[in-house]
Amino acid sequence: MAAAARLDLDGNPIKPMTICLIGAGGFIGSHLCEKLMAETPHTVLAVDVYNDKIKHLLDPPPPPPADGAQQARNPWDGRIEFHRLNIKHDSRLEGLIKMSDVTINLAAICTPADYNTRPLDTIYSNFIDALPVVRYCSENNKRLIHFSTCEVYGKTLGSYLPKDHPLRKVHSSGIHSICLEDVVTLSLTNCMIVKESEFYVLKEDASPCIFGSVEKQRWSYACAKQLIERLIYAEGAENGLEYTIVRPFNWIGPRMDFIPGIDGPSEGVPRVLACFSNNLLRREPLKLVDGGQSQRTFVYIKDAIEAVHLMIENPARANGHIFNVGNPNNEVTIKQLAEIMVQVYSKVSGEPPLEAATIDVSSKQFYGEGYDDSDKRIPDMTIINKQLGWNPKTSLWDLLDSTLAYQHRTYAEAVRMAMVKPVAS
Ligand code: NAD
Ligand code: UDP
Q1: What CATH number corresponds to the domain at position 115?
Q2: Is 197 helix (H, G, I), strand (E, B) or coil?
Q3: Within a domain: residue 329?
């Protein structure tokens, strides 16, 4: 019996596509490749300089068994092809984009430790290196899904409220936080009624982008991402480029970044999930930068990938839009994140938590000169909800439970071995 046709959100059949996935070997790319192989008939041209995180999809099937029985084949055999190339300087890129129906660009330097210490590489990677991708898509009438960042919003308007203003206090409410959307309160100017959410909730088509001074090189990344967004938007307006821009809000899960000294450089500083995982694996205190007072909303990678899947298969609803993709219900301060991770890791590893589980460090000590931070990031979900009907599902506790179980399973033994000092003879 023939398989039922796969339908988009408007009931139209979805034709198999060829997708040029740039940055396919990274954290998000690896989950997207898995999803596309397991749940769709699409073909992926996977472009990256590394492929360790998608090796399980690329490896040829094992040799036939000696008894001559039928050899097991990957069901996606032939639908994913790896192209090891650096998009900075490789003439094969345009050919791959021409062969594809849609190009998804994930390639970027996107770890905050690099923004103030390698600002040139950061700006080149996030703006200059993305230019040919946009140009090839535009010149060849190919659809582009470009990954930007929630960091383009920078700091919130609320961060400029006086330190002792009552509006600030409402906001350290943790993961069970109230919905800010409907809270109505008096504004600073005391005669104008404003929605409190306007100070904090980040809306694609309304919120301003507020960065620190040029000396605060932290914003090199956000600024480069904002300029490439503006360029893509202009290509759409002037030359008819079909584009979608994605602004991820702290997507986390297995395979994010690396554990220093195990599958990445010993001195490397990954994003917070991997930093805290590393501390937990080594049984050392989790480092809270400037007291861990910044707030973030974390979304499970598998929920977020579902949103990207909808964008790919619903071009009529996704083209011409900028989408926040995050989970406004999973808001915590970084200090609260650390506390929850300590509890969850103790549960999944069976090890008791350290008595002094966290330690404060200054941002200058941890990241060096020029660091600055986003104070709070709550995504407005109206546009993605209306266009694609997408909502995140997984609670912070549940996503940390499965992610830290993965970290423990994958790294605990390797970390233990690395920490065993050779005994002097
Ligand atoms: P990642 O670092 O895991 O993946 C990026 C991949 O791009 C890496 O595999 C890297 O090797 C590849 N790459 C970089 N430069 C390249 C080049 N010149 N040529 C070929 N390949 C290159 O990062 P990620 O978390 O998967 O993020 C993907 C995208 O999403 C980035 O654009 C990032 O800015 C954006 N983003 C992610 C998050 C998040 O929560 N993970 C948040 C905001 C924005
Ligand atoms: N952070 C921290 N300790 C760490 C790593 C990060 O306190 O070991 C903080 C960092 O200062 C920021 C937040 O955690 O406030 C999130 O950092 P991440 O690197 O994940 O990226 P960001 O959300 O800032 O883009």
Answers
A1: 3.40.50.720
A2: helix
A3: yes
The residue segments making up the domain with residue 143 are 108-413
Given a contact cutoff of 8 angstroms between Cβ atoms, the answer to whether 77 and 61 are in contact is yes
Question: 325 - beta bridge partners?
Answer: 248
Does ligand 2 come within 6 angstroms of the Cβ of 17? Answer: no
Within a domain: 14:
no
**3 state SS of 335:** helix
Q: What is the pLDDT of residues 328-358, one digit of tens each?
A: 999 999 999 999 999 999 999 999 999 999 9
* Ligand 2 atom nearest 273 alpha carbon: 20
Of the ligands numbered here, which is closest to the C-alpha atom of 132?
A: 1
* pLDDT tens digits, one per residue of 50-108: 999 999 999 866 666 676 666 556 677 789 999 999 999 899 999 999 999 999 999 99
Query: Closest ligand 2 atom to the C-alpha of 250?
Result: 23
Provide the domain count of the chain. 1
Determine the residue type at 182: D
The answer for 154, left when phi > 0, alpha when psi is -120 to 50, beta otherwise, is left
For residue 277 the two structure tokens come to 């995982």
Pocket test for ligand 1, best of 30, 82, 110, 255 (most atoms within 8 A of CB): 110
Which has the closest alpha carbon to 207: 379, 392, 389? 379
Task: Give SS3 for 314.
Answer: coil
Can you give the C-alpha Rg of the chain in angstroms? 22
**Is 197 contained in some domain?**
yes
* 219 burial type by CB count under 10 A (0-12 exposed, 13-18 middle, 19+ buried): buried
| Ligand 1 proximity of 258 Cβ (cutoff 6 Å) | no
The reply to whether 222 falls in a domain is yes
Its ipTM equals 0.99
